[in-house]
Structures are given as C-alpha cells and as structure tokens.
Amino acid sequence: MADAKSETQSSNQMWGGRFASGPDAIMEEINASIGFDKKLYAQDIRGSMAHATMLAHQGIISTEDRDKIVGGLQAILKEIEDGTFAFSRKLEDIHMNVEARLAALVGPAAGRLHTARSRNDQVALDFRLWVKEELQKTERMLSALIAAFLDRAEEHADTVMPGFTHLQTAQPVTFGHHCMAYVEMFGRDRQRVRHAIEHLDESPIGAAALAGTGFPIDRHMTANALGFREPTRNSIDTVSDRDFALEFLSIAAIAATHLSRLAEEIVIWSTPQFGFIRLSDAFSTGSSIMPQKKNPDAAELVRAKTGRINGSLVALLTVMKGLPLAYSKDMQEDKEQVFDSAESLELALAAMTGMVRDMTVRADRMKAAAGSGYSTATDLADWLVREAGLPFRDAHHVTGRAVALAEQKGCDLAELPLEDLQAINPAITDKVYGVLTVEASVASRTSFGGTAPANVRQQIAWWRGRN
Ligand code: ARG
C-alpha cells in the first residue's frame, strides 16, 4: 500500500477514457482482486481463446487478428506457468492483467478481443469453469473416501460394536454397518456434487455486460468449445447469478459437517477409555511434555475446518442477499470464500481417507463394549413378544425389571439365572439365552437396512456397483 500512490497517478488503460486522474491508493487497494483471482488464469485464457475463435468464425474479427490473439494468449499461459508473468495490482484483476499483456505482445489486435463481451460475463465464465473443475475433483475424492470405507466395512462386516443413541449404549451393531452409514452420507454428498455440475453446466460468455450484444455472436459455439451443455438463457441472470458458488459452498458445508462428525467419532474412539481404534503414526502427533500421548490432531483439524467452510457459506449468502440485478462489485468477494473452502475440503477429504485406511480397528475392545450396558435388552423384549405373545409395552416393562435386577446383582442379562427371570415373568424359558448374546442380536437384525452381517454384505455389493 505504501508505494501505491505514485503508481496510481495515471488513469486505468482499460477503462480510464473518461477519468482525468488515477484512483486513490486506497481505492486501488479495495478494488483490486488480482491477489486472489490470478488463480483463474487458465480459465480466463481458455475463455478468451474460445471467444476470439468464435468472433473470427462469425466474421466479427479477422482470422489474422484471431491468430495473433490466440498465439499471444498461448505465450501468456506459458509465462504464467513458468512464473515469469508480472501481475500488476494497477490492472485490478486477472482479466485486465491478461489483456494488457496481450496488447504488449501482439499490439492493436488485442484490443479487438473484448468485442461483444464484458468483464461481467467473463468473470462469470472463468469462475464457473473453475468451480466445475473443483466439483469434479471433489467427486473423485469422495469416491476415494467411499472406497476406503467399503474396504473397512467388508473387513468388519461381522465385527460387533455397541451402537449408540445419546452416546449411550443402545443396541449392538457391526462396525461394518457403522462404516456403511458413512458411505451413505458421502454417497449423498457425491450426488449433490453431480447435481451441482449439471446445474452449472451452462455457458455465460456472450451475456456481455447484462443485456447481450448487437454483434452476431454464436453462443452455442463458445458453449460447445468450453465443454458446457448449452448457453445460459437470460443475460441479466447470467451476470448476476452466483448460485453455482453458493451450491459449491453448501455442498462443501454439508460434506464438511459429515467429515466433522466422523472426526468427532475418531477422537472419541481413539481415547484409551474407548480404545475402539488406534490411529496410525502417520495421522497422529505426540505431546512435547507427555511422552505417553498420541493425539488425533488430523481429526481435530478436520473438525475445525468445518467451521471455516460453514463460515464461507454464510459469508457469501450474506454478500448476495441484498444485491439488485444485475452485476455489483460486491460479487468480487465470492472467490476467496470458494477458494478457501475448496482448499479446506480437499485437505479434510484427503486426511480422512488416509485415517480411515490406516486406522487399526480393535475388534476385541469393540466386542467387549458391545455386550456391556444391557445392550441386548431389546432382544429380550422382542423375544417376549415373539415367543410369549406379550404386547411390546408389557414386554418392555418386564425387561426393565430384568435389567434392574441384573444391575442390582452386578451381572449381565445373560448371567441372570432362569429362576430369577421366571420370577419376573413365568413365560420365560431357557431358550431366551439364545437371543441375549451380541452375535445373536446383530444376526437377527435382518430387516432391510438392518445391521445383520448378511445385510451389510449386500449393502457393500450394492455400493461397489456404484463406486
Ligand atoms: N474482478 C471483477 C470480479 O471479480 C471482475 C468483474 C468486474 N466487472 C465490473 N463491471 N467492474 O467481479
């Protein structure tokens, strides 16, 4: 900022025709987006090449000018990728940085590139292309995470663990079934990503400032060249729409929320008190003072990244909520939220995939915990309904008394002698012990979507066909 003043005396070469002097240093600082939108350089250049090619095809510019423009843009792409391109804040953004350099490289032909377009449709195009690629990457990363879970689920289709509600032991489930719950969650995230790609797959270029253009452009041609399904239909909406960014952020927020719940479980499971899993050395850290510690830092950071991503969604919703149609400069604030969230989500997905693949599952600890807390009480109640014809509410009451007695005696339900059970309800026979083990409990849960190992294997096969 300090040396900006001297640079800003002359007016902007792209739009300064009616300006006698350059912007105040603070104006330049608040206005410039090149610091972050340089990330869009490849999309900007690709968009300009498609636009110039279409302009020449339609006879709006000459083929000589097209060749100069396309050649110059190729040279600029190389300069940026080689790190030799000098970005200038005076030129505000990526669009004008590229165009000014093009003028330096190819002369007056460069001035014809901006025919029949505006930075409003240009930025909408660049950003859409970027978000589309990011969504495609997110889709691949979600598939990798799903694959990691499918492998762990297969390995542990029979591993019994306590299922929880209120984080209190509820009923035994299998670890495979628990893994498949995450497959469902990340599978929905992936569906949302696919839908978002479909929603944004329309080309904005050619909407121009907001009203379209009088030049005989072919928007289907540019849409096609840039890999879009079709052009957008309303020029006003096109330059004022940021739904694709909001959809990306909301998808990212929901996926991050799923990742955060998983992170929380990993934190809990890896405590010595639970001991359900051991994290690999690769995804944990030690303490500088307590030699015995192994901390789940990666999981904790995944949990924290969710806060950033959720914040970005709210930030952009808030930016957009008061804007009249069509473009307003407020919309320049869309990019940092999306870039930051994309980076956070990628890191969180990669770290979580690594943790899931690497963690050691302690089946012995899970099994021991699965049987505690009277987790098969519902199985006793169900047995009374099935075998003794009791209404479920009565069976619930009888079972409650059995649990109270076991608690009083300090033993498990399966350890109560038959006389004790019969004193509570004479219809109980020794066949009841067959349903009180955790293995019998999970094996009996064969309803569609239930935790029985056979069902879990079916779910895994179903998902393997879709991953
Ligand atoms: N840097 C701007 C943005 O990101 C580009 C569009 C500028 N349009 C304009 N009319 N000033 O939104």
TrEMBL record:
Start and end residues of each Argininosuccinate lyase C-terminal domain: 374-443
Listed GO MF terms: argininosuccinate lyase activity
Family matches, as Pfam families: ASL_C2, Lyase_1
Keyword annotations of the record: Amino-acid biosynthesis, Arginine biosynthesis, Cytoplasm, Lyase
Keyword Calcium: no
Annotated SUPFAM superfamilies: L-aspartase-like
Reaction(s) this enzyme catalyzes, per UniProt: 2-(N(omega)-L-arginino)succinate = fumarate + L-arginine
Domain of life of the source: Bacteria
InterPro entries the record matches: Arg_succ_lyase_C (IPR029419), Argininosuccinate_lyase (IPR009049), Fumarase/histidase_N (IPR024083), Fumarate_lyase_CS (IPR020557), Fumarate_lyase_fam (IPR000362), Fumarate_lyase_N (IPR022761), L-Aspartase-like (IPR008948)
Pathway entry: Amino-acid biosynthesis; L-arginine biosynthesis; L-arginine from L-ornithine and carbamoyl phosphate: step 3/3
Localization annotation: Cytoplasm
Identification of the protein by name: Argininosuccinate lyase
Species this chain originates from: Mycoplana azooxidifex
Organism ancestry: Bacteria, Pseudomonadati, Pseudomonadota, Alphaproteobacteria, Hyphomicrobiales
